[in-house]
Each structure stands twice: as structure tokens, then as C-alpha cells.
What does this fold into?
Amino acid sequence: MSDTAVQADDQTDAGRVDQFDALIAEGLRIEPRDWMPDGYRATLIRQIAQHAHSEIIGMQPEGNWLTRAPSLRRKAILLAKVQDEAGHGLYLYSAAETLGADRAELTAKLIDGRQKYSSIFNYPTLTFADVGVIGWLVDGAAICNQVPLCRSSYGPYGRAMIRVCKEESFHQRQGYEMLMTMMSGSDGQRDMVQDAVDRWWWPALMMFGPPDDNSPNTAQSMDWGIKRHTNDELRQRFVDMTVPQAQALGVRLPDPQLHWNEDRGAHDFGAPDWDEFFSVIAGYGPCNTERIATRRQAHEDGRWVREAAAAFAATHRESEGEPA
Ligand code: BYC
It folds into this structure.
């Protein structure tokens, strides 16, 4: 290549970078066919894949109660919610595909432990109250984290988040309504709710990720407009939103340091056990092994469906005169 050609290429690259930076600076969307830095693409694939995996693995803890829901109404509601999570996973895998990721490869990375999913789904659901508390706290935390992602700089991700958030909001309300019902029931039911809140509160706070001073990805992701707030900002927002809801419900949040700070106009609260968090995301939480084993089995069980769908698509292409 001549020197002039190299120079022209460099100029083109610099021009692309400028154009990308200008779109980000103006708060406009990056779309799949736009040029983007490799790091931006890789970060998005990492986050979106992790998010998709979380939705799919997240079907398991609640799915555990589908056969034992206390009434037909509760069973129908829970079934619809779990199906919604599957739908969220599929929108998100599609968003990752627009970045050139291969869905089968993402699944392979999940089941052999090369990609993460949310820490929250590595805890067991011991009673039916856990279903309500997951709706209230876990979907509540998901909403806090995901509403700002509707403005994420990558178009397909932001647009997927709009629909996901609408459904998560409905999930949060169904969880809260269920807990309200239980709290106006017997002492045994109230104890069951309190016990579930005691077990899920700290893991829910961990969903937002490590503290800002130990979050390697936040600064760059915020510069790129992938994330709009830091982990600690969103955790604070969640606590402030949840405290009055806990009061209305009549449950105690298990944090002796939790109190309103007049000067800050926000709640002070204790730190989650970060050693526990890092151990859970390293694969050593109470249910990591079970969650991945179940996902791997489901993937194996679905092999014949994928093969049949691929064979059908090939036959269809042939009958349309396209190469198989
Ligand atoms: N769990 O630099 P950081 C749902 C990892 S689905 C596991 O702060 P980042 C729902 C992080 O990946 C909920 N890993 O990272 C579904 C990174 O490791 P790698 C899922 C975590 O990406 C069904 C390392 O720690 N929601 O709501 O800037 C039913 C350092 O962290 C976690 C999403 O995925 C965690 N909690 O920020 C009901 C939302 N936190 O990848 C509900 C989209 C951190 O470098 N994702 N790590 O090896 C995000 O907003 C961000 O990715 C996070 C982390 C805030 C989670």
C-alpha cells in the first residue's frame, strides 16, 4: 500500500472516530450499521449477553413455584411472569446479534461459565413469599437499573429496554400486591414475608454491581453512554424508593444502619457483604451449580427442536429455490 493510501485510510478511521464521538456527545443513538470502536462493541456484547442470560436463568427460581402456587390465579400470574422473562431474554439475544454476536455461542459461553449472569439468581426460593419478594425487590431493582438503560447509546439495546421495563413494572406491582395480601393474612404469612425480605434484601442491593471505587467498567461505559448512572447512584435510588414501600407493607428491612439523612436528603445504609458478592459471581453462590446444570440440561433437551427447526428452514429455502 502506498504512503498516500495509508494516510487516506488513517483519515477515514479518524473521521469515523470523530463521527462516533459526535453522535455520543450529542446523545444520539449508535445503530448496528454505524461504525463503532471495538471496545464499545465488546462492552455491549458483554453487558447485553449477561443481561439476556440473567433473564433466562432468572426463570428458574420462580419457576420452582409454578407447580406449587397456592391458587389457580397465582399460578396463572406466575406463569405469565416467567414467560415474560423468556421474552426479555430473546429480545436481548437479538440485540446482541445486531452487534455480530452469535446466539449459539453466547449460550455455550453461559453454560460453560465463560459469561456471567446476575448474582441474584444464585439464591434459593424457599417459600412462596419469595415469589412476591422477588417481584417487589428484584424486579424493583431491575427497574431502577434498566429505566436509564432505555436511553443507552446503542439503539437496539435502548429500544429493547423500553418494552422490558414496561413488563418489569407490571411484575413489580404483582409482587407487591401479593405481599400486601399475605401481610393482611395470618401471623404465619406475615412471618413468611419478613423471612423472605430478610434473605433477599442484601442480594437485591448487590444486583447493582460492586461499589463505584471497585467497578472497573463504569467510567468507560458512562463515557460511551452505555450506562447512564454509576452502580452506587442506582443503589441509592433503589433504597430511597423502597423504604417507604416497606413501611406501607409493614415489613422491616434488615439493616440496622438504615436511616434518613436529612442533610443528604437520602437514606444512609449499610454495605452489603462484598466478599459474598464476589464469591457468588465467581461461581460459588448457594445455587450456581444447580442453575447452570438446569440450563445445560434444558439446552440438551432442546437439541432436537433446534435441529428440526434448522432442517425445516433448509427444506423451505430449497422449495423457494434458494441454496440450502
Ligand atoms: N451479578 O465494572 P462493573 C432482571 C460483574 S435481570 C453478576 O460494575 P458493569 C430480572 C460485571 O459483569 C438482571 N455479575 O460492571 C430477570 C463485571 O464482570 P465482567 C440483570 C456482576 O457491567 C428475571 C464485574 O462484576 N440486569 O433484572 O459496568 C426476573 C465488575 O462490575 C454483577 C442487567 O444485566 C451482578 N449483580 O456493571 C426478574 C442489567 N454486577 O463482565 C428480574 C444490565 C457486576 O467484567 N447490566 N458484575 O467479567 C448492567 O447494568 C451492568 O452490567 C451492571 C454491572 C450494573 C450489572
User: Anything to note?
Assistant: Residues 46-47, 50-51, 54-55, 58, 85, 116, 118-119, 138-139, 142, 145, 206-210, 215-218, 221, 227, 231, 281 surround benzoyl coenzyme A (CB under 6 Å). The chain is about 65% helix and 0% strand. The radius of gyration is 22 Å. Confidence is low (pLDDT under 50) at residues 1-8.
